[in-house]
Amino acid sequence: MMKGKFLLRLAIMTVLLGGALAIRPAWTQAPAQEASPWKDRAEYDAFNAITQSKDPAQIIQLSDKYTTDYPESKFPDKILEMKLGAYQATNNAAKMQETAEKLLTLTPNNLRALILLSYMFPRSANPAAPDFDAQLSKTAEIAVKGVAAVDAMQAPAGVAPEQFEKQKAQSAAIFHQTIGFVALQKKEYDKAQTELKRSGEANPNDALNFYWMGLAHLSPKPSNYDQGIWSLSRAVSITGPGALPEATKTSVKDYLTKVYDARHGDTDGLDAVLAQAASAAFPPADFHVKSMEEMAPPPEPEPEPVKVRELTVKPEDLETFDDIRKHLQAGGEKEADTWTLLKGASLPLPGRVVSSTPATAPRTLMLAVSADVAVVDGKHDLEVSLTAPGRALKKGEDIMVEGVIDSYTAKPFVLKLTGAKITK
After folding, report:
1. What CATH number does the domain located at 317-422 have?
2. Of 4, 53, 188, 384, whose CB has the highest number of CB atoms within 10 Å?
3. What pLDDT, in 10s, does the model give residues 179-225?
């Protein structure tokens, strides 16, 4: 919505119908006495004076006098059209609206009045007005009627077909824009996008239309960021008669920057988008503003799960010292799996003292555990490193020790315990 002055004269397009809106009398000679539509020659002259005047203020004055002098005139619509043109020339928005509404009561399909009211409403509407919803509905009806009126237009004599079609498209653009604006206010975003795009295709230099189009794409959730960002970029890039006022352009660009930054993570690339949008009303098919998620580096691949081979040995297979010796001497997977289960485990074992270092720390004991080892003098199969000096031991004495399995020698077999203590 934009309030304040706006140059309706530039947008209403007085060239419509090849100048047909510039009202001139259809009579070139004094009418016959009985067939004349005039009350008298004075009325005819008064009407002609209005049509011949070039001064908007004089046109308004003469029109008011004519209406007062000839209340039964057969041409009230022509008088209102000339007054409307005069008010348009002086950019008197209130009188333009008032006169256009009066004109539609006389000629409901008057194209000039339909265009003017459709054009004015989006630029002067107040959403806080208590009757705003009613105004939206009324304006939508006017714009829809305007589209139908444009479709029904016939080219006047002397106007080239291509020129006529261009004028029709420009007129229709105003109505489609207004329908789109109303849909935007009603949060009918798909309809707003469609109608505003049709208007933009016919009039690609109307910055306000592209601003509304941007809102129509960015307001719904999820938003169409690509179309919305391009439309806002187009809106702030347009220069000349269709440009936004500087203050409005600054506000729209600030909003565009925030949207782009929130989407992209920074404003890198925005200047390039603005440059592109300055030369094209609509984005190329491959236009895309990457999101922060798309800009983020790809996640690290998940590590391959470690395949754990099932051990060939179970804890219950290692209940005795002889079981341990047999498995640690087996070689291959069985030996490796046995060591996987045993290494670092705490193990209590009985044994017969084969030799012992003095009863001071550190102290090492050599014990015979297996029966076949115990009967051979000087042979041992368990080496124990004690954590404390402990009592004096005699060769051949049977004791109980407990320690942590640290290492082993397969052949001849010796199992080594560390951090051990004598428990019995």
Report:
1. 2.40.50
2. 384
3. 999 999 999 999 999 999 999 999 999 999 999 999 999 999 999 99
